[in-house]
């Protein structure tokens, strides 16, 4: 019997979300009421949906990727953990880690894995790197070693997720591609934004910065078909091998 695990599943807190920068507020108004209701539900209705269309056995849930403070992450993680507690055979959780402070993110990963039984963590990034880090920090910054160290020590993966689109992103990146008042724009954006935005550069940045040399057992979880890495791997390998400054991997 095949045991199917779905790793790119989202949950949305029923409580209002507040970000430190209004421009990073997620455009949740783009999501239909029906989908919003499903995202907020972790119970019998979601379990019924697990059986369609592939009869999934286990969902690995994480909060919709948003740029929020460490305290908000703790609140969201506590809420998610309390919900999946009632269905441990059907759901597991990735802890939302704030990129405002890597040390806080590392501490939250410890707390959630050790006390909340989370199976890993999730870092949110946008087009300019890790959203929210001081000075527009990047995923390969040395400060992030605190997170990688904890993940390696507990043998849990860290998922790299694209931030949920903002209203500004929808206006500047997508609306020009569609006719005015297109009835499918919002549905396409909310469902395909991450696949459109995710790229191999985040993982390649980790690799070329030597992160996997310092943390050889680190596990990175990718969505959107592995950020295109599987299909691009031969080309990526050839390019890296042609550059003598890149250490062999």
UniProtKB/TrEMBL annotation:
Q: Is Methyltransferase a UniProt keyword of this protein?
A: no
Q: Which Gene3D superfamilies match?
A: Metal-dependent hydrolases (3.20.20.140)
Taxonomically, which superkingdom?
Eukaryota
The Amidohydrolase-related domain covers: 67-223
Segments spanning the bilayer are none
Annotated InterPro entries: ACMSD, Amidohydro-rel, Metal_Hydrolase
Does DNA repair count among this protein's keywords? no
Please list the GO terms describing molecular function.
carboxy-lyase activity; hydrolase activity
What is the name attached to this protein's record? Amidohydrolase-related domain-containing protein
List cellular component terms (GO): cytosol
